[in-house]
Amino acid sequence: NNRGDLIVPPFSITQDLNYAFNNSLTAMHPDMTKLPLGELLVTWDTIELGVRHVYMRKFNSLGFALSSADQLDTNQTYTVINKEDHGLPDIDANANGDVVVAWGGQSDGYGQIGITYRTFNTNDVNKLLLPEQWLVNPAVRGNNTSARVMVDIEDTGKIAATWVEKGGNPVRQSSYLKTYQPRLASWGTPLPLKYTSPQGQQAVNDITSVPIFISPTHIFVSWGSAMPNGSTYIVGQVVDANSKAVSPPFALSSSATATVKRPAIAADRIHNQHNISVTYETTTLGIPMQHSQKIYIFP
To answer: What's the rounded Cα separation, in Å, for the pair 170 and 189?
Structure first.
């Protein structure tokens, strides 16, 4: 509860399922989201016979399973083999029951890592039967990982997605954002998330991007930018629902000696003010530390 008291004891997501889920600690990378009636949808990936699969399962608010595990990667075109960047599912839902899940998968035909996704509404179970689709086609954009997805907060069915693309020589990591417009039934053009420091340095790696809707028409996105001089920034930017920049990227934090990573964001709206909380981790001399910062955005 809001006082930090334990209400429900810890419970297993996979213990009552088949042996493959529990053999050699292969179930990993969990994520979860809350549904309108308080149920939880939990996703994870697991290695079975050398192949990594993505699963989803529903629980009630007391931790009792309401379903068995649904395998989400059912189309062999989107094979999820056992590599570090594969699987890693991310899930989100809104108050209308619209759900989106994305994960890293490799197509047999390309040998590159793409981002796969599925959408459905929890009020229409038949929609779960729709096959997965490319969010980022590896035939077009090469190796991709670290997908993050958000459904808009006011039930219009819009989706914001970010991911990291790896490529070049030497290998560079670049972050991108794009949005889905349900009225057009299509994704917009990817927006590169790039930051240039006040000293004029352009980031060598823009990684670990996270989006969140602050209104039906605007998205706040945060990511990490590593500079050539060794400093690292957590960066924020406001974009619209068509993947167009509304503000320039701006630094939320900076450090000349520490490694800054793992940004996470949450938002609420009071009257016309958007309150955004950003958390991130720094590591100095091998010691990790957690940080939190609040910013306020007005329309």
So the answer is: 26
